[in-house]
Amino acid sequence: MMGICYQKIGEISEAEKCWNKVLDSSYLFYHPIIYYELAQQRLREGNFDQAELYYSKIIEKFPSNSLAEDAMLGPVDIYVAKGELEKAKQYCEKTIGSSKSSRIKEIAIAKLGDINIKLLFSPIFTETSEAYSVKTGDTLSSIARNFNTTVALLMQSNGLGTTIIRPGQKLKVTTGSKFSIVINIKKNELFLNYDNKLFKRYNISSGDPDSPIPLDIFEIKEKIKDPPWYTQGGDVIPPNSTDNILGSRWMGLWKSGTKTSYGIHEAIDPSDIGKYVTKGCVKMIREDLEQLYDIVPIGTQVTIKSNE
Description:
The chain folds into three domains: 71 residues, Serine Threonine Protein Phosphatase 5, Tetratricopeptide repeat, CATH 1.25.40; 46 residues, Membrane-bound Lytic Murein Transglycosylase D, Chain A (Roll); 128 residues, Beta Barrel (L,D-transpeptidase catalytic domain-like), CATH 2.40.440. The chain is globular. A hairpin with a 2-residue loop joins β4 and β5. The protein has eleven helices and 14 strands. The strands form four sheets. It has an eight-stranded mixed sheet with strand order 5-4-3-14-7-10-11-13. Strands 1-2 form a two-stranded antiparallel sheet. The two termini are 40 Å apart. α1 packs antiparallel against α2 and α3 packs antiparallel against α4. By secondary structure, it is of the alpha+beta class.
């Protein structure tokens, strides 16, 4: 613990002195913990070979320790630190498909989502994107319509600080029609998929047993920033009001072309996440909601389920 304290304040050499004393002792219980701390420290220093060595020691010497599972995902952290995001993504996908540990799968799913978002919001071209050459008369709005994507995603993917574009400019474009959403209300999880393949998982809150959202297929037909809230009593609560329960974004769900009262909006109280506290709508923490809002276009399919 003294070593960890030294590490927290940046006294790395002192931290390692403490840890090496323990490694030279017979207290084997602490050895995998220290190896893991050392691996993480070498990652921060950019010493990837040493990081991989410490991960390997945990796996070889303490295979039954829970940290051995974390060490199995060590290559993901190394690939990310080296900027090799595609390799990190592939490793996560392989782990999710092959690991027999539910815990390691959960960790891999979380890491995969973070990696996919980094790739999506970067100028790096992937299998989900293509290059588009701006033509005379093009605007970001017209390009977004043609590829069924969002202006916000075009701007983030291409590092644009303004909507101004010029002919001949190369843009990274991701076709939005391949995004879909599956919501598991039993586990309060929202899965963003791309081409029916897991892209990112978000934690949510959903309806209580007396007001559940129907298990059905919906479509996002409304997207509103800073929405007003229309109460059942007919009152209109303006955006940014402390009484507005919708928060910063609203994505309205329609069924078979008909508007419903259901939607995806902000959890004003983040502690609601994971609970059944809504009147049928889906709540997300603000950061996640705004991220999802920027990614998915109008027309995105939303499937509500109560099973795995």
